[in-house]
Design goal:
Layout lengths: L1 E5 L4 E6 L2 E6 L7 H8 L21 H8 L55 H4 L1 E2 L14 E2 L6 E2 L55 E2 L4 H7 L3 E6 L4 E7 L4 E6 L3 E5 L5 E5 L6 E7 L4 E6 L3 E6 L6 E8 L4 E5 L6 E6 L4 E5 L4 E7 L1 H4 L11 E7 L2 E9 L3 E6 L4 E7 L4 E6 L5 E6 L4 E5 L8 E3 L18 E7 L7 E6 L11 E6 L2 E6 L4 E8 L10 E8 L3 E5 L21 E8 L5 H9 L28 E7 L3 E6 L6 E7 L26 E7 L4 E6 L3 E8 L3 E3 L4 E4 L41 E2 L5 E2 L11 E3 L2 E10 L12 E5 L4 E5 L3 E6 L4 E7 H5 L31 H14 L11 H9 L34 E9 L9 E8 L3 E8 L5 H5 L3 E10 L4 E8 L21 H9 L17 E7 L2 E7 L3 E7 L6 E9 L2 E8 L3 E6 L5 E6 L6 H6 L1 E3 L3 E7 L2 E6 L2 H10 ...
Parallel strand pairs: 44-48
Antiparallel strand pairs: 1-2, 2-3, 3-4, 5-6, 6-7, 8-67, 9-10, 10-11, 11-12, 13-14, 14-15, 15-16, 16-68, 17-18, 18-19, 19-20, 21-22, 22-23, 23-24, 25-26, 26-27, 27-28, 29-30, 30-31, 31-32, 33-34, 34-35, 36-37, 37-38, 38-39, 40-41, 41-42, 42-48, 43-47, 45-46, 49-50, 50-51, 51-52, 53-54, 54-55, ...
Amino acid sequence: MALAIFSESHLLCVTCSKGILVREVPKSDFTKSGLQRVVGSRLDSSGFKDSDRRISRNCKSSERVQRRLRVPRGRSAFQRPTEGSEARAAPASLTSAPPARPPPSLPAEFGVACRRPGLAPLPLWLLRIGFQQPPPRPDWFYQLSERQEGGRASLPSHTKPIRNATAIAPAPPPPQPPLPDGEDALLPHLRSEERISSPSSPAAREPPAFWTMPAAGEAAAYSGKRTVRHGFPYQPSALAFDPVQKILAVGTQTGALRLFGRPGVECYCQHDSGAAVIQLQFLINEGALVSALADDTLHLWNLRQKRPAILHSLKFCRERVTFCHLPFQSKWLYVGTERGNIHIVNVESFTLSGYVIMWNKAIELSSKSHPGPVVHISDNPMDEGKLLIGFESGTVVLWDLKSKKADYRYTYDEAIHSVAWHHEGKQFICSHSDGTLTIWNVRSPTKPVQTITPHGKQLKDGKKPEPCKPILKVEFKTTRSGEPFIILSGGLSYDTVGRRPCLTVMHGKSTAVLEMDYSIVDFLTLCETPYPNDFQEPYAVVVLLEKDLVLIDLAQNGYPIFENPYPLSIHESPVTCCEYFADCPVDLIPALYSVGARQKRQGYSKKEWPINGGNWGLGAQSYPEIIITGHADGSVKFWDASAITLQVLYKLKTSKVFEKSRNKEDKPSTDIVDEDPYAIQIISWCPESRMLCIAGVSAHVIIYRFSKQEVITEVIPMLEVRLLYEINDVETPESEQPPPLSTPVGGSNPQPIPPQSHPSTSSSSSDGLRDNVPCLKVKNSPLKQSPGYQTELVIQLVWVGGEPPQQITSLAVNSSYGLVVFGNCNGIAMVDYLQKTVLLNLGTIELYGSNDPYRREPRSPRKSRQPSGGSSSPHNSDDEQKMNNFIEKVKTKSRKFSKMVASDIAKMSRKLSLPTDLKPDLDVKDNSFSRSRSSSVTSIDKESREAISALHFCETYTRKADSSPCPCLWVGTTLGTVLVIALNLPPGGEQRLLQPVIVSPSGTILRLKGAILRMAFLDATGCLIPPAYEPWKEHNVPEEKDEKEKLKKRRPVSVSPSSSQEISENQYAVICSEKQAKVISLPTQNCAYKQNITETSFVLRGDIVSLSNSICLACFCANGHIMTFSLPSLRPLLDVYYLPLTNMRIARTFCFTNNGQALYLVSPTEIQRLTYSQETCENLQEMLGELFTPVETPEAPNRGFFKGLFGGGAQSLDREELFGESSSGKASRSLAQHIPGPGGIEGVKGAASGVVGELARARLALDERGQKLSDLEERTAAMLSSADSFSKHAHEMMLKYKDKKWYQF
């Protein structure tokens, strides 16, 4: 047991093995006698100690605690009441939460209560913070959910804030009906145990207000769903570096903070106001950071906890903050304002000092103009009492803090952007708006010693060089062994039009100009010492660019850059889609890493990454996780996302198979897309077989196989597919169409036409309509394919009668069947990629046959359709010019392609407010890359525009009369229809390559409300039936005879129900649409369970995922809610408000995966991961890395004997005496407002979320304290030894010379 006193807040803290008790004590009782009376134990003159201090159990303290908390005697204050108790009950709408596990009764050690009457009871969260078992949470707690950008929780709209949490005593929930098999195990692992009676309950609406959780430590484990954020900070604005802790901080224009340590140690924080960060200042080696925002607020962040929190805030009310400076090892922060004044803030208390430097006292009295805002503040490295103040107008003032007057004033006729000191304190350098640098001697204020124009043209007649662009920042760093470094950004000549931004490094007589890919936001020079009055010895420069972070090695010739280990290249090309896979095969990540290691660039610095602060967390989750991102340039990146880290594994460039147009005249086929014709729309990946299939924006599909061998493909296999359905209101020249070809329907066999070796040439009718032309041209030359994913087949949709191919809306691949299927608003196509043939090519209406509920019929003959895309008419060279002219007309009719999401926000907002039957036909997968049909097609009615929205290969029952499952394809459409296509596959081995696959619609039709999003299948026990897959094998290595025999006998890996089960309950089909979800019993096709997910909104993403050996349906709705449902009963398990759908980027990239994980693209450059799993939330605190580690501050530079004797060293300043309240007085209350932060004592003490975190924190604190005491003891012993030695030598010297005269020396 231990006691602790917080005298300022009048709190008494008692700890034991079962928790912490905090009690409020009156100020009058903070005496020895008073505390004896309160605690009930004797205290001697030595005061409180950390051991062997027991609290007397004779005072019946437990009864007093129960009486103070108004809880009936005989029950613990933290125990839920039973029915009929006299405690006040919670609202009826909140009593549906399952009962929490009962805590142990309060031990006698916790019975500390004040005998003085009239003290209000403390809140429940302050009374007990348990170590072994958390206190049971009231029912309203389970309703809380975290907002998007803040660490706050919000109450549902039907829940009122409960002010007295200690009196909450809800009645037990009503008994719940038993769950189906396998569902009971799911409940404890959900993040929130909320049971919802109806999806249309008030909880489904957006909460009206924030509710701040007081216990930061507990809220971190239960209410915080966001885990980590990866990627480059979006719109960066500020940069800071701790040279001792080796931590880098980046602030953004949206108020975000990103902290980087060693690779794998990152942290994301957010200011609640969302104002732009204008400057960051580390308290070097103190574990704290000061941030200055554009709303004139200063914040002090505590970095000594895994999730940094704000300790204090200071809001300036009358002046705008422009610059801040915090000297090394000082607690006084200088704050410059737009008015030209300088205020001083005590960092410890975050209060203003009465010491103020007014602008009118700093400048000359004869000056009639205002000097402008403060743009620079720094103290003299050799004299802390001299403060250098730079004003925007060009005036620099050296201010004497003690005498409160200006020593020197330096004036220049150009505006100042930055100032930097020489470490000796005798010179400083200024950068100006005309591209010049001026070097000044401190004691010569009349004119600069030297004026340099780094990029200006020097004129021969001695005139002033031509003005250049402003030098935004300059740094002056010295070395012991050579010339100083002058590093600057900007200053280029105005005649360098189109030149990229540059960083200039001037070292002696050499000048290096380093071009950057993006605009320079800020840069910092990394030095060996944190002391400004010593040789800095710079070794690297951190350059923060608009979209990148670059680290330059100054110690090597040529200034090479370091290889960046952070996952900051997510946005190298804009992300267009992403997929998330958890619990992948264990050998998959090493395989991808081995092929990706060969793609690394050369020419990096050979040194290790110098930003290496912090420690890694304890990874409690060991299952592999992979994130796949598709990009606008056609690239696909694989990322290792295991244990909340992110590392790029492998990059695939899909554009390598196409001919790239070198000029505008050379691209007649890609002009339907203005830019990014290779952009990825949909990714379909099978982790077990490693088969990859992508769909691009130019209506192309590419199938890839994984191989560890390098191959050269002489001819790239390719198929062209004509997929179009027309009605008679489309203007087409039917009189001169070629005769229609036969199209396979029903169970007809496809014709095994060999794939094309190169794209077909375009054909045109007499009126110049483009026909049989793909959007991209496949290379006809041999293609060298490196180890990794190699092209198996390229499929392209072609133009038909002047109509461009429509975007692909759904895609699926199955390695066991050797099939790939895709669909769009025109129809569906199935391809056998083993035999390179088209098996199915039907319009959506043709899938219904005679069972079409809309009774739609093609009212005009279809154009010629080629099932295999084999032949096409030759190109008519005489009509080329005519066709090109017609293409321009077609382009004006089509809406142009847009890669930016912002243009679709208005369209999406309209979609949010409309019901399903009135929504515009938007692509669910990727709306930003959707290309609308031409104006001639927009007149087609709604039923004719039914698109394929979901595809799923499986082995199940296709008809009601089936007695055994068979391979089939389930097809979902945007009108809520599910159709089943039966597949008759030939035997495996060589027969598979020779015999055709028979495809036939089964006639089964199921209906749901809204577009179909996802389908899956369960067995009778509720276990997920994964699609059949072919295990991966190296196909580029010749097989032996034994392996071929095994291949013939091997059957696809699939999961089928046992034959002993009854047919009536063999399988369940789970179908999720935009509005509802259904569970269909197979083969009877009866609806077993049904759930209306939402009425006022619609589902954007739905996935069937596994969570703790159980299966559930996870949905993300457009109104910002995340919902989960048990399977197969579809009982609501979770409904939390997460974030509103502000743009289509979120809808396009949001995805769920197994084990309660999800992610989405929170900005164009960042991926946000989140969890709704209770287990992950509990382990998150241990998995996060530590930013702050105990590091000893380097010793100060040696002043030397003569400098110490004659006063030539650095002059110290007693800032406490100068700026303290006793000498400078109090600042005006109206000038700034102090705001206590949520990360104060409560946040710091309660940041840990469990036994391991608390013990680790205590152990770390003890180790740090013991280390400091040990170092102090060693230093004391060394000083004692040195003093003894000095005394001995002095005594010997005295004995030697005491009898000698002065002339004998």
